[in-house]
Write a structure and sequence with these properties.
five-stranded antiparallel sheet, six-stranded antiparallel sheet, 11 strands, 216 residues, alpha+beta, 2 domains
């Protein structure tokens, strides 16, 4: 019995849509109305796409020569666990619990090429993530790994990945930059700068210099 009334609902729906379709086609200039509606809908979709693209592009910052992008300092909690404080140039601070012996920061870069580069378009960057790493292979396999995002996720789609995978944008390129793995140490402070070739991290105090020299 239940299948009969379910089928009845579909039959009634079918008849209703059939009547609406016939009435619509019977009206004059229905094609122009359909064309206007379709064009308007496509325009809305394109507007939404450009809106999402503009929001994602707005999250990138200009890269001019060697650009300071962050300062990172470490405070030891226990063996192979540190509090990492990341300070951005605009003054924003973020605190992370990083496990391991070494640290690394990654960034996404967008580079303009050809005529756009000649016109003075500057590359853009966005910090991507902070991660820890162990020196011993056994620790790397068995102990806790920590990876943190340093920027908000893109809305709708990742414009960087779209550029990287596209074959139709010869005038723009997506590149990934990573600072060399450096040791974490209690009280160590490092500066992080971004160049056209990638990220560069440098010790800012004696404790960081000692940690780097001992590691090498």
């Amino acid at each position: 019995m239940q299948y009969e009334w379910i089928a009845g609902i579909f039959v009634i729906s079918c008849i209703a849509f059939l009547i609406v379709g016939i009435v619509t086609l019977a009206k004059k200039q229905w094609f122009l109305a359909w064309l206007r509606g379709t064009l308007g809908f496509l325009c809305l979709l394109v507007a939404v796409g450009f809106g999402l693209l503009s929001i994602n592009i707005f999250s990138y910052q200009n890269l001019v020569s060697e650009t300071p992008v962050a300062t990172i300092s470490f405070e030891r909690n226990k063996s192979q666990e540190f509090n990492a404080r990341v300070v951005l140039p605009q003054g924003d601070e973020r605190l992370f619990r990083v496990t391991g012996d070494l640290w690394q920061v990654d960034a996404k870069m967008i580079k303009w090429e050809g005529v756009f580069s000649a016109l003075g378009f500057q590359p853009g960057y966005k910090l991507d993530r902070l991660q820890g790493r162990y020196i011993a292979l056994e620790d790397e396999r068995e102990l806790e790994r920590t990876v943190y995002a340093l920027s908000e996720p893109d809305i709708g789609f990742d414009v960087w990945e779209a550029i990287q995978s596209s074959q139709w944008l010869p005038w723009v390129d997506a590149a990934y930059g990573s600072a060399t793995y450096l040791p974490m140490a209690d009280g160590a402070i490092f500066s992080i700068s971004l160049t056209y070739s990638g990220l560069v991290a440098r010790p800012m105090n004696e404790r960081a210099e000692v940690a780097v020299n001992d590691w090498h």
